[in-house]
Amino acid sequence: QVQVRESGGGSVQAGGSLRLSCAASGRTFSSNNMGWFRQGPGKEREFVAGINWSGSTTYYAGSVKGRFTISRDNAKNTVYLQMNTLKPEDTAVYYCAAGLGRHRVAERESDYDYWGQGTQVTVSS
Q1: Residue 70: exposure state from Cβ atoms within 10 A (0-12, 13-18, ≥19)
Q2: Quick check: 27 pLDDT over 80?
Q3: What is the rounded end-to-end Cα distance, in angstroms, of the chain?
Q4: What angle do CA 25, 69, 32 make, to 5 degrees?
Q5: Are the C-beta atoms of residues 50 and 61 closer than 8 Å to each other?
Q6: CA–CA distance, 25 with 19 (Å, rounded to integer)
Q7: Sheet harboring 68-73: ordered strands across?
């Protein structure tokens, strides 16, 4: 099995930056798709960013493209989400997810099997 746990959330002013970390464990971690989702107040959970097993492929929701960067360090079993130029609409609980498959693109909740507890990101105007 795979366990994931997010950290690094907090409050920041619009235009600021935060880096989220996702500590993952499990014997198949390096071969899993990893992704970030978020759920804002009164909104459905949405895909934010994904990365394949090797880190050679990354992909993003249009709303964060150019501002957010996903990366992974398999030696540390850690996935990161660097968030720059944050906007109030980025306010949400951010979830890290791990998929047991090796999909080139995984942006659906059903593509993932394990989820972290979430970390709150609040962006003030």
Answers
A1: buried
A2: no
A3: 40
A4: 30
A5: no
A6: 20
A7: 3-7, 18-25, 78-83, 68-73
Q: What is the 3-state secondary structure (H, E, C) of 17-46?
A: CEEEEEEEECCCHHHCEEEEEEECCCCCCE
What does the block give as tokens for 46?
Answer: 């949405």
CA 111 – CA 115 distance, rounded (Å): 11
DSSP 67: T
Q: Which pair of tokens denotes residue 60?
A: 């993003």
Angstrom CA distances, 9 to 20, 29, 64, stand at 6, 23, 17
- What does the pLDDT look like over 76-116, one tens digit per residue? 889 999 999 999 999 999 999 998 888 889 999 999 999 99
